[in-house]
Every structure is written in C-alpha cells, then in structure tokens.
Amino acid sequence: MNGAMASACARSSVVPAAPPAASTKSSACPSKKATATFPRRTVWCRAAGRHDDDGHLWLPRRDVLTSLGGVAAGLVGYPGLASGALEANPVESCRRGDKVNDKLVECTDPNREYPCPPPSPVRPVDFKPEGAVRRVRQPAHLLSREYQEKYKEAIAKMKALPASHPLSFAAQAAIHQAYCDGHYRYDPAAKNRPFDVHFSWIFAPWHRMYIYFYEKALGQLIGDDTFALPYWNWDAPAGMVVPPLFRDSFANPLYDRNREQPRLDKVVDLDFLNAPDDAPLIPFNGPKDDKYEQLVYKNLCTIYQQQIRGGRGARAFLGEKLCSDTDFRLKEINERYKRRQGGQKAKRDKTKSQGSLERMAHTALHVWVGRSGPPEGKTCSADTGGVLGHDGAFNCNNDMGFLGSSGRDPLFYSHHANVDRLWHIWSTKLGGEGFRDPEWLDASFVFYDGVESPRPVSIKFRDVLDTRNLGYTYDAESEEDLPWLSCKLSPLVPHGKDSPPRPSPRKMLVYPLSLAKGEVVVVAAVAVPPKQPGQQRVLVIQGVEYDPTAENKFDVAINVPGDQALKVGPENSEYAGSFAVVPSSKAGGGTLEGRITLFVDDVLDDVMGDGDTTVDVVLVPRTDEEIKVFLPPTIQNQ
Questions:
Q1: Which domain covers residue 601, as residue numbers?
Q2: Can you tell me the distance from the alpha carbon of 401 to that of 297, in angstroms, rounded to the nearest whole number?
Q3: Are 106 and 248 in the same domain?
Q4: pLDDT per residue as tens digits for the range 200-229
Q5: I want to staple 448 with a disulfide (CB 3.0 to 4.6 A). Which of 68, 313, 454, 543 is the partner?
Q6: Judgement on whether residues 415 and 562 belong to the same structural domain of the protein
Q7: If residue 388 lies in a helix (H) or strand (E), which one and from where to where?
Q8: Do 246 and 200 share a structural domain?
Q9: Angle (nearest 5°) at CA 415 between 409 and 216
C-alpha cells in the first residue's frame, strides 16, 4: 500500500491524527489474519549481588535468588511462555504455549561482572491453604496507637535482618526489582526478551502472592499470627492522603526519604498527570472548598471507572493474556504498516495490555508518591539520590515512582494491599469473575516462607483467588460504604439530538502519530460494529511506543471536540480510559512498545446518536515525553 493509498484511509478532523480503516475489508484498507509457529524459548534470569549506600540489596545474592522465584522459578510452571501456534488477531492475545519449567531456566548477567547464583539445593514445597482466617487488614489511617507500634516493630525487625536472609526487607525489595526491572529474561542470546509481572493478567495475582508472604513474615517477626498488613485506603475521602503513620520522619522505620515531600500532606490525585503543571496542590486538612470537593469527586469517579465502567470482565479489569513470543504479531503488523508507509518497517507491538486495576489509580499513586526528579538545577546521579536501573542509567523518580525501587518504600506494600482489596471487592461485592483458562489458573511462582527456617513455596494463581485460602480478609466495616459506587458521570459536551455536528475530516495523516503534551489528536470516523450477543466492544490502540524511563500518559475519549478535549477526565461520560505506566528501565536502553484495550460499550451508549455508525476517537497526551502510535485505533467485538 503506497503513501497516497494510506492517506485515503487516514484522516483527522482536528489535529494531525488518522482514523482506522472501516471494519469491513476493502482493497484500499486490507486486514489479514496471520498464523505463526515458533520454536521453544529458553528462560533466563539476570542477577548480581551489590548493595547501595542504604544497605539495600541491588539484586539477589546467591542465597537470596530462590526468594525471587527458586532459581528464577518465578517463571517455572508458567504455561504459555514458550512455543506454540499463535493466532495473530488484533484483539486475541495468543493461544496456550508449552509449559516453562526449571529444565529451561538459566541465569546470566552479560552486562555485569557478577556470578550467577547456583540452583537452590532445596526443592519448593507446594502451597497449602490456611485452615482459618486469622488476619483482618484494616485501613492505615484508622489504626490504633498500639497497632501502629506493632507495625513499626515488625518493619524494624525485618530491616534488621541481614540482606542475605530471603525475608529481609532488602530481599523483599529485590524481589520486586528483579521481576519489574528487566532482570528476569528469556532467550537472551537471540532476542534478549525481558519478563515483567506488569502489563498483563499476571499483575494482580502475582502481587497478591508477594504481599501475602511479606505480611506473614512481619507477623512471624513479632510472634503474632493475627498481624495483618494495613492498607492505604485511598479510594475513600478520609484516606486520600499519605497516612500520617508513614510521614513521621523521626525514628520511624516506615518513613522513606525518597518521596515527593510537597505532596505528602495533600489530597492525592488518582488521575495524576492530568492536571496542568501549575495546578495548585489541595491541602488535605485545609478548607473543604469547591476545589477540594471537585478533586475528591474526580477521585471517586476514577475508582468508579476502574472498578465498574471500565472493569466489566476479567480482561477489562485484570489485563490481557501474557504471550510468550513478543513477536507473534510482528509479521502481520509489519505487512500492514509497510503497505501504509511505502515499505518502511513498523515498530513491533509487544501486546502489553494492562487491566483497569493496574493502569489507573495504582499507576497514578506510584508517580504521586515518588520523587519528581533530582534537585532543581542538578542531574540525576548517585550523588543526587538516584537509583541505578538495569539499563545502567540513574533514575530520580524513586522510590515509588520507579518500578526498580518501589519495594524499598514501606508505603508500597500498603498501597498494593489496597490494590489487592479492590480486586477482592471486584471479585466478591461486584460479582467479578477471573479467568477460567488453565494457563492463568496454573501459573505458578515461588516465594520464601518462614523467618526462622526459610523454605521455598510454590504457589499457583488458583490458590490465591479467594483470600480466605491465604488466611486473611478485609475490614468488613470499610466495605459497607463505598462512596465511589454513587459516582454520576456528566457529559463534557451535549450528545444525541442536541449535539453539534462533528466537523468533517480536513487533514490527512501518516502513521506513526507523534503525541505531544497539549496537542490533542482527533481520529475521525472510527467504525463502530454492531454489538454481538455475548460479546463486548473494545477500543484497541496497538503499536504504542514510549520511553519507559519517563512518565507516560495519554487519555482516550470518544466524540469530544478537539478544542474541549483537554478538559476531559474520569468524571465525564466521554472518557474511555488512559494509557499510563510507572517509569522503569530497559536493559540496553531504548523504547518499549505496548497497546491499550478499553472496554467501551457504556461510553458508546452515552455518546452515539441514533443511526451513528462511526465515532471520533480523541487522544489527549498528558506528559512531556513523546509517545508514538504506529497503528490506527479500531473498535471490535470480543
């Protein structure tokens, strides 16, 4: 397909952008389905042992690696990371691949001169459900003084353990670093592909496992098997601030100096990176004026969008399937892109697609708490408090604002306890159902249990779907009143018979689109297929290229005029969702590619008029770093 023919399929109604081809096939805008079979892949883990100035374990040492997955067994038992016949469908991720086991796992670190850990001499034991619910997690801001002191004592004792102990605080932080900053890898000789527990359906169950063993270790350290990890209750107005328990800097093991200090006593913004740079922070204990009420209401609507409107079904809420071969769709994408761009090769789509549980409030608060960068006028380095990423560069969004260092902040664990709680609420009170796919249910990871005599435990996703199997639950009283359930979305502009006519397309586009902050892109006349029985309509944007070390976000709205789009937010009925990631590094540098899948049936019902067969998809960049989009948005049934 030459450039002229590509332009015939790509037009914009406001700012440079382009709609996708119609869902019906035509000679000018073809769409093909490709199938590919790939050879078996090998799983690798990079690891090294080095400590920073705070005594944190930079990466697991020989005797700690098993806590990161039993000789990299975080991937052991995970089906679908090896080979298999994969259908290159724009929505469907992949079919089940071969299981990955310890026979395929090796460890190497070609970028650093540190030896790999030997295999663990101890075989993991299988997890056994706990016989009773002994632990009840409570909101951190409602803890009694006695419980606060108990929590501090447990953290202090965990920090006092030698870094080589697999349940030390340093080792716990290293687990998240290794799994989330590119140290677990497969097929490094050929493709050097990283494995990450974010950006897919692995996110929620893996973090539930991780927090569970962390919580148990805290209780063991203080001899209290009823001790439960407090959660940061940021989905309720009374909890929309960093809990004071974590802010006191005097002899407090819960304090972390690597936080953005001006924000800590302000009302959190669960849609962070949406507000203008000069927008004032709202004091949590200040006057409850209109600005305070507006931010609190926007926060509640963010959770409503995350849990209900954008979380209908497991794929919407928990994320898409993790595919073993990141290039399974490369052939199709390249062919389509080359036809549009006159032979130029496309960027590959690694099919990373988060669920609403991961990409919304969770991501916003990581960035909200972490530092915004080095001191003014200075570059990021070890001298300015930066943390060294796996790419060899320093990052100053630490601790919470950078995936490689998030686990170093005790607040991280209470933050994720609330993420876990919202999954629990979705599964129980809201009636959500997880995946039935054995590939998900039988995925397994290995963690250490038992402070006195640590032993590796193999645990599957099916083991953690009910928190009662893990011996904990959440404070029932806090779940009786969920204020975000009552959020009422309002339209930003009129729709239906009262809506003004949409402007006709007036500018042709060539992909990739380059998204820049403040420059709205309206992709006009995106075809909307009729809804099929038993299916949901999704808006898919593939081929999203971004710099993982930077803050990245763009919002997606439907049928909003370009000159009004900067005002759109989760409190509006036109809001479809966002692409947002927590900064991380990439070994060797460079960019990452992903995609976004948004479930939009409710949005379409609100914004489409009778007889409409197309909508305008509006991309609203919110961050400074350039984001490229290599493929047009499409709306499909799935």
A1: 513-637
A2: 24
A3: yes
A4: 898 999 999 999 999 999 999 999 999 999
A5: 454
A6: no
A7: strand 387-388
A8: yes
A9: 80
pLDDT, tens digit (0-9, with 9 covering 90-100), for 504-556: 655 677 899 999 999 999 999 999 999 999 999 999 999 999 999 999 999 99
Domain for residue 539, yes or no?
A: yes
CA–CA gap between residue 267 and residue 283 (Å, rounded): 6
SS3 at position 173 = helix
Are 427 and 560 contained in the same domain?
no
Q: Kindly state the tokens that stand for 161.
A: 């353990």
Flag whether 102 is in a domain. Answer: yes
What dihedral angle (degrees, nearest 10) is formed by the CA atoms of 108, 111, 115, 119? -20
Q: Does residue 581 share a domain with residue 452? A: no
CA within 13 Å, CB half, 615 = 30
Which tens digits make up the pLDDT trace of 547-597?
999 999 999 999 999 999 999 999 999 999 999 999 998 767 788 888 899
Cα angle at 371 between 365 and 374, to 5 degrees? 155
Q: Specify the amino acid at residue 183.
A: H
Q: Residue 455 is encoded by which pair of tokens?
A: 């032993």
Q: Show the tokens assigned to 395.
A: 């990052």
Closest CA to 559 of 613, 502, 630: 502
Which alpha helices (H) appear in 453-537, and where do they start and end? Answer: 476-480
Report how far residue 590's alpha carbon sits from residue 455's, in angstroms, rounded to the nearest whole number. Answer: 38
Q: Which of 447, 473, 488 is the last residue before a domain boundary?
A: 488
CA of residue 494 relative to chain centroid, distance: 33
β-pairing verdict for 507-508 and 11-12? antiparallel
Instruction: Give the ranges where 344-409 is alpha helix by DSSP (H).
Output: 356-357, 363-369
Q: Within a domain: residue 560? A: yes
- DSSP per-residue codes, 309-338: IT--SHHHHHBPPPPS-TTTTHHHHHHHHH
Do 542 and 587 belong together in one domain?
yes
| Number of structural domains found in the chain | 2
The pTM of the full predicted model, rounded to 2 decimals, is 0.83
Quick one: tokens of 482?
A: 């969920």
Structure token digits, residue 102: 């310890």
**Where is the domain boundary, 488, 521, 547?**
488
Domain match, 132 and 241 both:
yes
Q: Are residues 469 and 596 in the same domain?
A: no
Residue 7 lies in a domain: no
Q: Verify cis geometry, omega within 30 degrees of 0, for the bond prior to 224.
A: no
The CATH number that applies at residue 585 is: 2.60.310
C-alpha torsion sign, points 257, 262, 266, 272: negative
Taking alpha carbons only, the member of 180, 88, 60, 48 closest to residue 456 is: 60
CA-to-CA distance for 323 and 320, rounded, in angstroms?
Answer: 9
Per-residue confidence at 54, pLDDT binned at 50, 70, 90?
very low
In 107-191, alpha helices (H) = 145-160, 169-180
CATH number reported for the structural domain that contains residue 196 in this entry: 1.10.1280.10
Peptide linkage before 121 cis (omega within 30 of 0): no
Alpha-carbon radius of gyration of the chain: 24
| SS3 state of residue 513 | strand
Tokens in use for 469?
Answer: 């199997």
Write the CB contacts of 190 (distance below 8 Å, at least 6 apart in sequence).
none
